[in-house]
Design a protein that fits this description.
CATH architecture of the largest domain: Irregular
CATH superfamily of the largest domain: IHF-like DNA-binding proteins
Order of helices and strands: HHEEEEEH
Number of helices: 3
Largest sheet: 3 strands, antiparallel
Strand content: 25-35%
CATH topology of the largest domain: HU Protein, Chain A
Number of strands: 5
Low-confidence stretches: none
Structural class: alpha+beta
CATH class of the largest domain: Few Secondary Structures
Strand order of the largest sheet: 1-2-5
Length: 104
């Protein structure tokens, strides 16, 4: 039997619209302008990662691309062995101020 005290509740989810509203309120912008700003930031991060560049945001964290090697896996439906191709994978590493804010 599972100890109910140890079962984690799912975290509240914040979507893009919630972030846009937060930025609008904090910066005194309209929601339309805030949506453009959030989109531009996300597009910028994606563009730099696509070029293989690391994106560092001081006080927040770093985004980077790492290479994942090819491997073998199993098809859960059939149990047959399948090849998983190598891929570039985006990673995020939280900075100390972000870690402290979350744990504080």
């Amino acid at each position: 039997m599972v100890d109910k005290k140890k079962v984690k509740k799912p975290a509240a989810r914040v979507g893009k619209n919630d972030l846009v509203a937060t930025v609008a309120e904090a910066a005194g912008l309209t929601k339309a302008d805030s949506a453009k700003a959030v989109d531009a930031m996300l597009d910028g991060i994606v563009a730099h990662l696509a070029k293989g560049e690391e994106v560092r945001i001081v006080g927040f964290g770093s985004f980077a691309v790492t290479k994942r090697a090819a491997s073998e896996g199993r098809d859960p439906r059939t149990g047959k062995s399948i090849k998983i191709p190598a891929a570039n994978v985006p990673k995020f590493r939280a900075g100390k101020p972000l870690k402290d804010a979350v744990n504080g």
